[in-house]
Amino acid sequence: MGSFRQILPNYSYLEYEQWEGRWEIIRGIAISMSPMPSPKHQRVSAALSELFRKELRKINCQNCKVYQPIDYKVDDTTVIQPDLLVVCKPIEGHYLTFAPELVVRNTFTIYST
Asked: How far apart are CA 103 and CA 22, in angstroms?
C-alpha cells in the first residue's frame, strides 16, 4: 500500500517581513493570527505589564524592560509575537533575537451565547 506525505510551504523571516496582517511562522509554517486582541485581553495584558514594571522598579532593575507584542525571531524560520516579554539585555534592531527572561502568552478564548 502506498503512502503519501503533504508538503507545506516553508517560509523564512525575509518573506515574513513582506506580509500584511498579523502572522507568525513556526518552523517555516505560516500561522495566521487573530485580529486585534479583545478588550478583555488588552486589559489583562495592560495590568500584567504594569505589575511587572512596578516589580522591576521595586527591585531597582535598570536593565529589564517589559514589552508588549514584538517579533521574537527564534531562528530564520520561527518568529513569534508573545503577548508580553521581560527582557534584561538591550535589543539591537527591530526584533528580539535572544531568549527573554519571561514570556507571557495569553491563549484564553471568550465564548458568548
From this structure: 19
2 found inside a domain: no
Nearest to 43 by CA among 71, 83, 80: 83
Is 8 inside a domain boundary? Answer: no
Asked, for residue 80, whether it belongs to a domain, the answer is yes
- Its pTM stands at 0.78
Per-run averaged pLDDT (10 residues), the chain, 113 residues: 67 93 92 83 90 95 92 95 94 94 72 40
**Among 65, 70, 84, 86, which residue's Cα sits nearest to residue 24?**
70
Quote the CA–CA distance of 89 and 33 in Å, as a whole number: 27
Q: Which domain holds residue 69?
A: 13-104
Question: Could you tell me how many residues make up the chain?
Answer: 113
